[in-house]
Amino acid sequence: MADSEGQTYIHALESRFTCKRYDPEGHISDSAFNTILEAGRLAPSSFGFEPWKFLVIEDRRLLADILERAWGTKKNADRTVLILARRGVSAESEWVHHIAHDVQHLSKQDEQARLQAFSGFQQNDLQVLENDRTLFDWAGKQSYIALANMLSAAALLDVDATPIEGYNRDALEELFAAAKLYDPSEWGVSVLVQFGVHDESHRAHPKTRRPFGEVVEYVR
Amino acid sequence: MADSEGQTYIHALESRFTCKRYDPEGHISDSAFNTILEAGRLAPSSFGFEPWKFLVIEDRRLLADILERAWGTKKNADRTVLILARRGVSAESEWVHHIAHDVQHLSKQDEQARLQAFSGFQQNDLQVLENDRTLFDWAGKQSYIALANMLSAAALLDVDATPIEGYNRDALEELFAAAKLYDPSEWGVSVLVQFGVHDESHRAHPKTRRPFGEVVEYVR
Question: Is residue A75 part of a domain?
Fold first, then answer.
């Protein structure tokens, strides 16, 4: 049973591709889309702090503005998701207290112990407190786990997808600040991802990956 | 069909947990482990540059040294994987030429066009060329997609897993440099992950996640 789930997953990963052209008439069901978002929501993260948020962009004008500033986006995708990463996720932040208190329901004592461990971890072990950028990139890494889960769900659901780093950071952040989409001192753009149905004319490039023996090394 | 695959995946994500204690007698099959590694190998990455490598640590002495420097690791896990991220992945790097030429088999002309796009992307759009750290963190983000795929495969295979950021960067890198495990100018530690069978005495914390409506926001 589990073996066959594993093979189904590998097959889905082998078959998926980064969609470059979508069918303008192609739609994916709300149920499939919710499964994709749910897979992202359930992603694990460092200390369970989930430093992410998913904005589903349905405002047509905003969407057009995004497409203009993100060359990696495709205009006929059915759904466009902006994955935000949280800024300033340190032990002293409101965010960490929110998760520890409201989500993880830690007692005051447990919260203190956890935040102390987290503080030492960020400062001494992983060294992500060097500056705002290293801390934001650390949150960004967590959000890529959520992104990967969404892509896996899409592949398993036969939904086509496009993960997108191809955007101009300054132009997007300026746009979102002007649109008051979120508080830029709290959130920043991590990555975008689109979903839909590939166009009939779409020809995926053959998948290229280094061979197993070059990627995996046994240290014996 | 695809719907049921989606539900199977969500169920696996709901059931998985970060394993804190492994059964010292618990083993996972080579076939399951290979499926997990294969899921990582097949992960997508920016421009398809796969800036990662997976070291499976089977040397007992080295493993003990790692456990000492990475408080997040568990001593009875059956398999321990060190995920490395590539340093210095810019358009001028040997790495990018290797992938474009030997893996993607681009013509000289296509390779030039691709590297030019990549250079502009890194410099102007995503702004990852600020310094060595921002460039390494960008590669690290890609490697988290591979990590997430491994965790998804493990969940689908009923294999227990522990993703680990809990390590001392300096201590680990010093250890690996002394052991000449890799060239530290080319690779750095991104994240670790262990797999195995949870101990009978293991009680997973109930999974906590912010509710769907707090994570997902529709912009209409």
Answer: yes
Domain that holds residue B68: 17-91+131-199
Nearest to A160 by CA among A7, A58, A27: A27
Q: How many CB atoms lie within 10 A of CB A210?
A: 16
Contacts of A88 (CB under 8 A, 6+ apart): A95, A132, A135, A136, A185, A186
Q: Is residue B220 part of a domain?
A: no
Between positions 51 and 90 of B, the ones with CB within 8 A of A are: 52-59, 62, 71
Has residue A99 been placed in a domain? no
When divided into structural domains, chain A yields a total of 1
What are the pLDDT digits (tens) for A144-171?
Answer: 999 999 999 999 999 999 999 999 999 9
- Pick from B72, B13, B54: nearest CA to A146: B13
d(CA A33, CA A184): 27
Angle at A148 between CA A144 and CA A149, to 5 degrees: 120
Chain B CB contacts of A14 under 8 Å are: 42
Q: Do the Cβ atoms of A141 and B144 come within 8 Å?
A: yes
Rg (CA), chain A: 19
Cα-based distances in Å from B163 to A74, A103, B190, B211: 33, 21, 11, 23
* CB-CB under 8 Å, B54 with A216: yes
Q: What is the CA angle A183-A185-A190, rounded to 5?
A: 85
Answer yes or no: pTM beyond 0.90.
yes
Burial of A105 (0-12, 13-18, 19+ CB in 10 A): exposed
For B42, the 3-state DSSP assignment is coil
**Beta-ladder partners of A192:** A82, A164
Q: What is the pLDDT of residues B22-35, one digit of tens each?
A: 999 999 999 999 99
CATH number, position B181: 3.40.109.10
Any domain includes B7:
no
